[in-house]
Amino acid sequence: MELTLVGTGTSGGVPMIGCGCPVCTSGDPRDHRLRSSAFVRTDDGRRIAIDCGPDFRQQMLREGADDLDAIVFTHEHKDHTGGLDDVRAINFLCKKPIQAYATQQVLDALKRQYDYIFLPTDYGGLPQLEFHILDGQSPFDVCGEEFLPIPVYHHKLPVLGFRVRNMAYITDANRISDLGMERLNHLDLLVLDALRKEPHISHFSLSQALDIIDALGPKEALLTHISHQMGRHESVSKELPEGVGLGYDGVKRYF
User: How high is the pLDDT of residue 121?
Assistant: First the structure.
């Protein structure tokens, strides 16, 4: 299977609007970060998106992707759901609804944010999704692959990370539940939230993320949901321990 980090930035993206800091003005493409999301490509070629943020259209175009089989949502914040309307282009191309997986909490939020999608109508220009409700703990099947929920917290908001085979993806977290930690053993790859070097109320800092990585011992770890406050990719990468890297948009791994 293939994992692509199609977005590795925080809610405002990098560069930030109106910011002239060295990161936001960097010429290194690794410092240009769309909102956090990932694509999983199965062995038989099916594409699964983890989250569907406001940069979804741009991410699909950049990847040269013209198909999507499913979306799995971590939580309801707009930087992870704001591209939902663009799913209709995939519906048109593939002539099918997109399978969507979310907790009831997330679905309720989407119904408030995108009420027009859920209204009974015969209008054909709306996103077409078939929702499957997750309980936040039980494994579930997506395109023939088992997804194992990893319960985490984004300050007080419940969020789901996911383990697929020996890869786990966790964004928007400052605490991992006991059950989540139990499910993160023996990983080949861990993708983990690390917003900046300074502490934050709802995200892991760099040092906190490194402590978790050290405790879990994955073969490799990539950091995501990175803000411009972290510093430039080139300089921060030199500070990281062996086996840990800053994720960047477009990086791929196989698992």
Answer: 81
Total residues belonging to the chain? 255
Residue 125 confidence (pLDDT) above 80 = yes
Secondary structure (3-state) at 20: coil
Q: Any idea which fold 2-254 has?
A: Metallo-beta-lactamase; Chain A (3.60.15)
Q: Where are the alpha helices (DSSP H) in 114-166?
A: 115-118
> Does the pLDDT value for residue 122 go beyond 80?
no
Res. 207: pLDDT tops 90 = yes
DSSP state of 194: -
Residue 118: CB atoms within 10 A of its CB come to 14
Strand order in 98-103's β-sheet? Answer: 129-134, 98-103, 70-72, 47-50, 37-41, 2-7, 252-254
The pTM of the full predicted model, rounded to 2 decimals, is: 0.97
pLDDT at 232: 98
Among the listed residues 254, 221, 219, the one whose alpha carbon sits nearest the alpha carbon of residue 237: 221
Query: HSE of 194 in the Cβ direction (CA atoms, 13 Å)?
Result: 26
Which one, of 120, 123, 37, 47, lies nearest residue 82 by Cα? 37
CB 125 within 8 A of CB 88: yes
What CA–CA distance (Å, rounded) separates 177 from 158?
A: 10
- CB contact at 8 A, 22 and 28: no
Return d(Cα 97, Cα 141) in angstroms, integer. 17
How far is the CA of 209 from the CAs of 10, 96, 135, in angstroms? Answer: 15, 39, 26
Q: Backbone phi, then psi, for 141, in 5-degree steps?
A: -100, 130
According to DSSP, residue 185 is labeled S
Domain positions in the chain = 2-254
